[in-house]
Amino acid sequence: MTNRSHIREGAVAWGFLPTLPMALLVMNLWCPALPAQSLLRNPDTLSPLNLLPGDAAVLEMEDIKKDLPCTVTSIKPVLGFDLHFHSGYEILIPLKELASNGQTLTVIFSVTPSTAKDSPKYFSQKFKVPDLPDDAGGKTMLEGGFDVGEGSYHVRWLMRDHLERVCSSSWDINASLNGKDAEMMTIQPSIVEASEPEFFKPEPPVARKPDGDPIKVKVLINYAPQESGSAAMAPVDASALVSILRTIAREPRIMKFSVVAFNLNEQRVVYRSENLDEIDFPGLGRELRSLKLGMVDYKHLADKRSPTDFLTRLVQDELAGTPADAVIFAGPKAFLDEPVTQDDLRELSGIPYPVFYMNYMFMPPGSSWAEAPAWRDAIGTVVKRLRGFEYTITRPKDLWTSWTDIMSHIAKMKLASSAPASTH
Predict the structure, then answer these.
(1) Rounded to an integer, what distance in angstroms lies between the CA atom of residue 389 and that of residue 71?
(2) How confident is the model at residue 394 (pLDDT cuts 50, 70, 90)?
(3) Three-state secondary structure call for residue 10
(4) What is the architecture of the domain spanning 7-194?
(5) Cα dist from 62 to 153, 166, 264, whole Å
(6) What's the rounded Cα separation, in Å, for the pair 122 and 194?
């Protein structure tokens, strides 16, 4: 029998992009979910609900229903940079099936570890549908997710609308690690949890213990999806970029932080903080939500040199005269039609601190390096011309090893700069 006492409810908003006019929604577009709507709320903080008899029957029998036409695709577990396995589903549904004066779609699903078949975890997710005309065309994409530890799991899933039409499915997933990677995990095997919906929650205080002179760093983060034209930040991309920033924030030898968040595609600086004792993650998150991903000003499109000029000014302004012991760029590969030239960087040729680039490039399980762009991107070119160091971050282990190397370089150069000059 189905255990009906453990279902929890988490409400999320509809996944249409608010910046798209209704005229675009009736075209053949997939409208992806916004970043915060792709993850479920933590069920431990919400009140328990009883599973409705009809929902329980569909999940128990595992019937494949298409009363509500939809296509659900499982997302294979991927080890995130937060050291959790992230899994979930994508839902593709025709807009004409949702035409009404507003309704709510309800998703119910259970995740059962193979080692605890009598203890499924239940979740509920709700999508609020905006008003849609009867002749709405195209389709929309919705997402949901959950976290698991290493192991095998069975997922039973359904979605219903206000007319009690049901779309249902079931599938199996497997989360596995290499032996060395298992030591990094922060979630135990065969555990099912709701995904963390807030990437920018405050960082716990760090006991700072400077080794010698206190270290100051400036971080310039290009907050953008891997796919430059994407209209939403994929959870795996957001998690990776924030995890890079948290790794820097947790370094006990760093005493002062300056952070500049920008979006090269939108060509604007979104957030700037100078000389802080701790990185203000909630404040950073509030500003990043103002980004209009996937949209570029027409004036910028007409001028191919515009993004290069933006990056040039950004580098010149942020690196010239910076009172820091290191400058660290972070973000996905960013390709421009025209590179920043050596002449553009002439005034920075004698900067007294090292420059690093933590280049994030997620490689899905089963993919190979042959599928990845092999050439250096625009930011990588800048760092190379400044005689800096570039690190490619594809998996969690790369983050930890690259950060160890970065801190080693910073410490050595800090020691060398503070050593008294020898006399003869």
Answers:
(1) 45
(2) confident
(3) strand
(4) Sandwich (2.60)
(5) 15, 12, 46
(6) 10
Contacts of 234 (CB under 8 A, 6+ apart): 35, 38, 225, 226
Do domains 7-194 and 215-417 share one topology? The answer is: no
Please report where in the chains the tokens 């963390």 appear, as a residue: 196
Q: 215-417 — its CATH code?
A: 3.40.50
CA dist 371 → 20, 309, 332, 362, 374 (Å): 32, 30, 15, 11, 9
pLDDT digits (tens, 9 = 90+) for 133-166: 878 888 888 888 899 998 999 999 999 999 999 9
What is the value of pTM for the model shown?
0.72
Average pLDDT for residues 385-402, to the nearest whole number? Answer: 91
pLDDT digits 0-9 by tens, 354-370: 999 999 987 655 555 44
Return the domain boundaries, the chain.
7-194, 215-417
Task: Please spell the DSSP secondary structure of 228-291, one letter per residue.
Answer: TT-SS--HHHHHHHHHHHHHHHT-TTEEEEEEEEEETTTTEEEEEEEEESS--HHHHHHHHTT-
Check: CB of residue 235 under 8 Å from CB of residue 86: yes
Angstrom CA distances, 283 to 234, 261, 287, 289, stand at: 20, 11, 7, 10
CA–CA distances in Å: residue 225 to residues 251, 294, 377:
26, 9, 15
